[in-house]
Amino acid sequence: NKVSSFKIKLENGGFLEGLVRGFKNGISKEDYRHLTQCDTLEDLKLHLQGTGYGHFLANEPSPLTVSVIDEKLREKLVIEFEYIRNHAYKDLATFLDFIKYSYMIDNIILLITGTLHQRQLSELLPKCHPLGIFDQMETVTIASTTADLYNAILVDSPLAPFFKECISEEDLNEMNIEIIRNTLYKAYLEAFYDWCQQKGGATADVMCEILAFEADRRSIIITINSFGTELTKEDRAKLYPRRGKLYPDGLLELSKADEYEAVKRVSELYAEYKPLFDGTGNNPGDKTLEDKFFEHEVTLNVNSFMQQFQYGVFYSYVKLKEQECRNIIWIAECIAQRHRAKIDSYIPIM
Amino acid sequence: QSLFKMGSLFRSEEMCLAQLYLQSEAAFACVSELGELGLAQFRDLNPDVNAFQRKFVNEVRRCDDMERKLRFLEKEVKKDNLAIDDTDIITSKTDYRESFRVRTTEETVGLYNIYRERGKTHIQESLTASAQYNLVVYNISFIIFVAGVLMRDKISAFERVIWRACRGNVFLRYTEIEAELEDPHTGDKVNKYVFIVFFQGDQLKSRIKKICTGFRATLYPCPETPQERREIALGVMTRIEDLQTVLNQTADHRRMVLSQVALNIRVWLIKVRKIKAIYHTLNLFNKCLIAECWCPVVDIDRIQLALRRGTELSGSSVPSIMQQMQTKENPPTYNQTDKFTSGFQAIIDAFGVSNYREVNPAPFTIITFPFLFAVMFGDMGHGLLMFLFALYLVLKENRYMKHKPEDEIFKMMFDGRYLILLMGLFSIYTGFLYNECFSRSINIFGTSWNVRAMNFTLKNQHLTLDPNKPGVFRGYPYFYGIDPIWQSAENKITVQNSYKMKNAVLMGFAQMIFGLSLAFCNRRHFKDKLTLYCELLPQLLFLCALIGYLCMCILYKWSVWTVAQSNTAPSLLIGLIDMYMLTDPKSNNRVPLYTGQYQVQIFLVIVTVLCVPWMFLSKPYILYKRSKQKKGVPGGLDSQSDDDVAILHHENNDANYGKQEPESFDMSEVIIYQAIHTIEFCLSCISHTASYLRLWALSLAHSELSEVLWSMVMHTGLATSGTSGAILSFFVFWFFSSLTVSILLVMEGLSAFLHAIRLHWVEFQSKFYKGEGYIFSPFSFTLIVEGKV
């Protein structure tokens, strides 16, 4: 019986899981130390050749720039992800699509914001994440109201179900866009969470933990960012994703908060989040809350690799790779701008 | 020369650590010469320095850049389907200046590429435009329209978005452009649609234009009257023609340059790779270009010659100096191999690289491996097929050497072609002994059994040949191998089993004793008298008294006991049990094998039992004594060795060599180690002998399988008579032959191969082989160019 269940699991993405576990091996702690010692980007390239990244920069002419490295890193991730996506079917395909949706949301918001500021489409497109590209994406610039956006463009896209809550006849403005972004994210996270829960098993165990944290992080950050803006408390409460550990009591308390200390008080009631608020601050040498969140996310994602035969590894793989790319870019930026004081504040992946 | 090589295969080459003092202007040339020679393994003298902080990092980077450019050129050449000339890739010397030329060539090609791209873009635009002009025939003048081209896969989404965004107030027509267009950036073929959208009003116009840009459609202005359109179409036509000529010219030019490149690209690539390797090696040297390398002692002259040549080539007046150094470190293991021995050496190295100057089992494996394989695989027919296959590989080896086979499995077989050749040859030999060819026996010399003497008539189905009856056995055995008459005997398997089983034990004992004698060679060579007398000698006695005596009994019974006595012959197994129960065979009314058996056996048992404490206790005791003696003379020996170390320090200016401290003596560790070894050896004497029985088991399995295949498949075809029988035989033969190849040759062959490997690695090599060395990996251009490093 055990063998047969093993076989079923293998058929259902076991090969891809093995692949992902192989892709995961990127840069070790030792490598990070070496990278931070590089003097120029060429050195960085030389050293990256010795890591799991291999010769991904080999065909780039000198001089290197940070943007080229960024582009190539992203390209590598996208190639790996698309390979997995192309070989996946059934549930795993849906799961991988869910991962892509978050990038789609980011891209749409980026394009709308860009159009509002009278930027050219050709200027905006390279900034879009390639994982979040879909057919109708580039036409979002014609919409002037959210209803327009939905009826003309997004109704055909995979994002349509998430969009239902934010349809209104109001014109698009910056406030509006932020609300759209957060409502979309809220709907997306809730849908993703529910899907994983329904999937059950180890996938639910791992993913619900990660998504719950993601939801709570969004709620906390929305609250902190809303101070001093015209967003009302009622509107703010509507943006909280209702799947995290803070739901329902914590979110109720959060919706009443009107200063940083209040947020901190609420969060400290939860054992997971208390250490994140300890020792944060804006003083030099202190870690920012954001970094702490990133660190916690990394821990969760690394833990997801501890369990087998579940989809969490795919999500974690993407997130960890992204973090790794961010780290490399951070180090590369520090090297390029000769600003070495903060070079060590990347977030290591265990 | 070949004799010398054989000798070197027995033990690895003698190595020495040498220091090279290179002049900075001559270093490059010298290292290049050494790379051509491929006999020196350089040590990293700056292990703490990062890759990018080394001395020649800029040069390495330049080589990387050059490689990138060459790869670009190679890609371009491949794109144009030009044949790359790689017949003459053996470049003798590395001339650095020459590679600068590559840069200019690359720039020209890059330039042409850009020209070409531009040309293509123009042409494509024009082509699509003209195609579209031809399409727009019906025109309603008071309605505004926008026309353009779009990628095929986007058209349905485009249609839906247009419809929704304009709330159905548009009219869209599209049609496919039949000619495949080329994407100017990537050069891929793409399919496109030309479309036209009719609508009213300016507001819709801006909206539609935005959608078009969103879908990356290319829009073309189109005049409203037919005359104007015709004029534009004509203009476009002429433009296309112009561009086509320009394009053709550039393409011609490009082709010319690229065909030049194609001739040389391999040579350039190899050159750059060599130069890069040289700089990587130079990076291993210390700041003053002092290098340290391991090299075979016999080749020191050649290395010195190479250094001198390098110095001359660079025109340096100061010679480069090579100097041998004393060291306590273990040198690398270097076994010189050729194409014949490399396959066998690979089997040994796969288990573990031998310690420095330890006896290398590879030369013996050349014979014992195919032999043991063949014992398990004995069949003339199968052996012949295997032999012919390997012979084909060997005869075609020059061709395959040039064009390396891509297939990994085939490559593995190709590397082991001489091994397979010998395996086939030996299988033919053992097949002769077993008298089996595709499981059939061949009667060449005439059987030694006489059926007529048993009064055989056609009436009786079964007939027992009794050798005791006069005239049934002719008095002399079948001349060579097993008598073919056994083929028809019912008790063939029983008789052969007993025979093969005993053979397996005999061969096993022979190989194990041989292994112990190699251990003796090792002890002699390393002057390790302690282990020789306290470990090896009791081991030898133990094995001989236990298994050797059994083998003696087998041989004795075979040669002395005759058919007439077969009813009273004693069982060897019972005899062995009796021996260790210390019972006299006479007391149980058993016939002794020979007179005085009991006394001999008692003696042997005593020897066996005595060997165990001898193995276990003597060595730790003597070591203990020695350590006590050492302690008794405080500082005597130690200070001596300290002095040595100090001198070495002085000579080498390097702290690395004083590392190996005199070992501290730990009695409990020694005892535990010795106990484990003793127990392991005693048990392994039995278990290894039993393990050799696989020789019998696999040989039985092989002959039974081929028997089954013959009688179940081929026999049915041959047994049918008439025309139908001929046709059936024809088809059955294909079935039979494919099964023979797939099951008997491939599967059985693999399994016999595996068991032969195991017998060598475990049963044979455990007797003498340490296998804890590390392999000599010299800095060699041939290895680098072949991509083996």
From TrEMBL, chain A:
Alphabetical list of InterPro entries matching this protein: ATPase_csu/dsu_sf (IPR036079), ATPase_V0-cplx_csu/dsu (IPR002843), ATPase_V0-cplx_dsu (IPR016727), V-type_ATPase_csu/dsu (IPR035067), V-type_ATPase_csu/dsu_dom_3 (IPR044911)
Keyword Lyase applies: no
Signal sequence, start to end: none
UniProtKB keywords: Hydrogen ion transport, Ion transport, Transport
Family: Belongs to the V-ATPase V0D/AC39 subunit family.
Main function: Subunit of the V0 complex of vacuolar(H+)-ATPase (V-ATPase), a multisubunit enzyme composed of a peripheral complex (V1) that hydrolyzes ATP and a membrane integral complex (V0) that translocates protons. V-ATPase is responsible for acidifying and maintaining the pH of intracellular compartments and in some cell types, is targeted to the plasma membrane, where it is responsible for acidifying the extracellular environment. May play a role in coupling of proton transport and ATP hydrolysis. Regulator of osteoclast fusion and bone formation.
Name this polypeptide is given: V-type proton ATPase subunit
Native source species: Ciona savignyi (Pacific transparent sea squirt)
TrEMBL record, chain B:
Annotated organism of origin: Ciona savignyi
This protein's name: V-type proton ATPase subunit a
DNA-binding as UniProt keyword: no
Residues that span the membrane, as ranges: 371-395, 416-434, 504-521, 533-558, 598-617, 708-736
Subcellular location: Membrane
GO molecular function, one term: ATPase binding
UniProt key word NAD: no
Species lineage: Eukaryota, Metazoa, Chordata, Tunicata, Ascidiacea
InterPro entries in the record: V-ATPase_116kDa_su, V-type_ATPase_116kDa_su_euka
